[in-house]
Amino acid sequence: MTPPASSTATTPGQPFSGNVIPSQCIATQASKLLNGTSTLTQFFPAPNLPGYAQNYHLLTTAQDEHDAGRRSLHAQPGRERDATRRRRRGGFGGGGGGGRRNQNQGLRQSINFNYNWTDSASDNVNIFPRLGGKSSSDSNSVQAGYTVGYHKLTNVLNASWNRSTSQATNFFTNGTI
Question: Looking at the domain assignment, is residue 153 inside a domain?
């Protein structure tokens, strides 16, 4: 593969002599980058393929990890006792005075607790390796609830707490955000 010919700005389409751009046509900022005297050159990786191929070809892997957990507890105090009492009276809704008429009668209680946890971490890949980085996050959540009912009246009390944190690190500054 041959490199493309450079052309002059004064006569478009005409190549420079020797196919080399004269130094007076190159801006001082660009010449510092080309000569490697600029502080910016440290952020550009060196060519890693020979010739005029597409350079800066980077083969890498990115890791990604996610974990989650949950614990729950649900209880209905007095529920077992009420079910035994109904069976003695003639079953559920059958003869012996059961049925819809008695569904809302008496004290009903329900207690629940939940805990949720998540954790994740991943690599942030960039064509310029120094600009890549890592990110991670985790969260915890706790919920608790109590429900009490008596006849047609029901009261519900719920409480929850959440905590989330996230962190990003880049290799450029080696700092966290």
Answer: yes
